[in-house]
Amino acid sequence: MKRRQLAISIADPISRRLVEGIAAQLEMEPIALDTAELQQPRRLDAVEILLADECIARKFAEATGDFEYRRDGLHMALVAVTASMSAEGTVLPKREVEQPFAGILPLPQTPSAVLAQLSVILYAHRAYVQRYESALEELSLNRRIFQSVTSGISVADAMADEFPLVYVNPAFEVMTGYSLEEIVGKNCRFLQQWDRDQQGLTAIRDALRERREVTVVIRNYRKDGAAFWNELSLSPIRDRNGMVTHFVGIQNDVTARIAFEDALRESEKLAAVGRLAASIAHEINNPLASVTNLLYLARREKGDTARDDFLRIAEQELSRVSQLTAQSLRFYKQSTRPHAIQPGDLITAVLDVYTAKMSKQRMVLERRDAPCQPVVCLESEVRQVISNLVRNAMDAMWSSGGRLIVRSREATEWRSGRRGVVITVADTGSGMSRETRDRLYTAFYTTKGIGGTGLGLWVSSGIVQRHYGRLLVKSRQRGQADNSSSCGSAGTVFLLYLPYEGIGEARVSAAD
Ligand code: ADP
Ligand code: MG
What we know:
This protein has 512 residues and is an alpha/beta fold. 43% of the residues lie in helices and 23% in strands. Strand 6 (152-157) and strand 7 form a beta hairpin. Helix 3 runs antiparallel to helix 4, helix 10 packs parallel to helix 11 (379-396) and helix 11 (379-396) packs antiparallel against helix 13 (456-466). The longest helix is centred in the middle third of the chain and has 46 residues, at 255-300. It is elongated, with a radius of gyration of 31 Å. The two termini are 54 Å apart. The structure holds adenosine-5'-diphosphate and magnesium ion.
């Protein structure tokens, strides 16, 4: 009997209907099976692929054992359905396929992404199971399906040197501007042109050598020379004996997504510059006003001594102004290459800008720096992180004043044993709710209405990651239950850990 049924055992109704809709495009008949039905081998006679929630899929595999769903000597492809997003709404990283599954399908995803993934799983499965000479013959059967997939699909020969392409679908032709005829027989690397020094390419080479799956985002170039960001997933295709004969790739042009993320980072930078400019204008305004007054007085004064006094004070005020402008120039000097800097100096550069504002809003600054070594980092980026933490702390104390505690000390990360610095930014402000704590690092999440962008911590966490550091938070609202103390005080503590050699190491590993 020909197995052309796609069995579905998924609890979530939306995911279930999504997969049902895609079955038709795969030229298969969808059938829904509950856990009781899964225990009746007869129900599975015509099933070629079973999609089940991961826990059900695991139980099914355990209960049936390997041989039971290998009737007529044919396996059934078992696909585990997992969550694509965490409860907080962040996208979970792709998991590698493991035994006993033929594939892993994270849901929810767009229908076209699901179709692309299922057609590749099916292709790999059929190549493995059916009595075809090679995956290439199987390809002729899957070609019809691949043609309707809107993601680019490419198949490369893994038995030949240099992995020559043997097939690409129409969506791949549209995405790259090359036709099937131009591409067949070539290695996929022509899409990189001269741009060979990318981290993702090393990951691909390793995966090809080790004959396993990989997903990366790399820069590629269309035939007309235009660059695009390509999210590429590669999967090995095995024959009946388990030999990897082909690699099949799913390509998606994610240029728009990446451009959007870049624009967001840029707009947070602009917002930060705007806030800084406002603070500086404010700081400069007071001394300038007094210089104007002093000059007025000096002009009207007849006696030399009194005039000299006015001019001396005016000079002092002006030197304060030039100090401020020098500081702000230093603050916004963009560093494109990492260098070593004392954490204390970084903190001072940030706090200098805010001191006047703090005292005006009844905020007391407590500062302590324990001795530590310089950190190798991108100075302006790390300053942006500290600046955002300080701004957030000040915002949280805006109505009632309070204490801002900024400290730095040496620390060792227990997991890796790497040494570095911990910068603490703590406030006695409002604290935050559980919901806020859970969504803190999500782009656009803000509780400040139009006063906030919700991008500060999102950008900061990206910067910290690039420096191989960590950002931790503890927070408490007034009157919130807490085992550690009985008083009802509120506040927030951010801990920023940066390894001494953070971005220095990254540079070394990117070079090899
Ligand atoms: P924004 O400051 O523009 O709102 P952020 O990403 O910097 O964006 O912060 C997101 C949210 O996290 C803030 O709106 C606020 O609710 C919360 N938050 C951050 N830091 C603190 C803090 N120190 N105290 C209380 N809430 C905070
Ligand atoms: Mg902020």
